[in-house]
Write a structure and sequence with these properties.
Helices cover 34% and strands 13% of the residues. The chain has helices spanning 37-47, 74-87, 98-105, 122-131, 146-153, 167-176, 207-219; strands at residues 25-28, 51-52, 63-64, 110-115, 138-140, 160-164, 181-184, 202-203. The two termini are 34 Å apart.
Length: 220
């Protein structure tokens, strides 16, 4: 059977994921949405003898040797990032209210977890989701999330929503899947004042409120 040309080859079929195309579809990020990534990464760095200073909206530029005035080299920071996902991302602390809100939202919609974690993280990430009762299909993505999200929502005959903390991903979804409601959520309270926002996307940092807003958007 030939693939439909309007579904990118990288997007798996909803049916192959065990999802119904007749229900609404919600696509959800993990880090700083379902889980407290910054907190977990900072704890990992502390065990490596390094400091994570949350004084700007950045990742690799916030890692310092103790007492240093300049961050460590970006190549070293990236290597630590990869190491964290290979060995420690399964210990991520859930974002407050996320588990309960997503469980309730699942009654109204199908859920797909779309994460930009490295491929080496798949086993730990899938195990983390399962342990917390979030055994929804997991897709690991690279780069902006618009194309993959578009490939998924085009298969659905219901309404759709997308939740992420990063504006680049939200903008990408708005461009490639404009019919999809986009929501920004930043889980870490320390990160919220630093995270840029846009009038293009609804920003809701409380999961109880976010879950209700997403359910309303996909129910129509």
């Amino acid at each position: 059977m030939l693939a439909r040309p309007d579904i990118p080859a990288a997007a798996p079929r909803l049916q192959s994921l065990g999802l119904s195309p007749d229900r609404p579809l919600v696509v959800v990020d993990v880090d700083e949405v379902l889980g407290l990534f910054i907190k977990g990464f900072a704890e990992f760095l502390a065990r490596e003898g390094l400091d994570f200073r949350l004084d700007r909206y950045a990742l690799f530029q916030n890692i310092y040797a103790p007492g240093a005035a300049e961050p460590i080299a970006e190549a070293q920071a990236k290597a630590l990032y990869q190491s964290y996902f290979r060995s420690h991302c399964g210990a991520l602390e859930p974002a407050p209210g996320a588990i309960a809100a997503l469980e309730k939202l699942h009654r109204a919609a199908e859920i797909v977890i779309l994460s930009n974690a490295p491929a080496e993280a798949e086993t730990l990430r899938r195990g983390w989701l399962t342990r917390h009762g979030l055994a929804h299909p997991l897709i690991l993505n690279r780069g902006p999330k618009g194309p993959m999200t578009a490939g998924l929502v085009r298969q659905s005959r219901g309404r759709s929503a997308f939740i992420d903390d990063i504006l680049e991903n939200l903008d990408s979804v708005a461009e490639h899947a404009p019919q999809t409601a986009t929501f920004q959520h930043v889980a870490d309270e320390r990160l919220r004042p630093l995270a840029p926002r846009s009038a293009r996307h609804r920003r809701i940092d409380d999961w109880a409120e976010l879950g209700l807003a997403v359910e309303e958007a996909v129910r129509g």
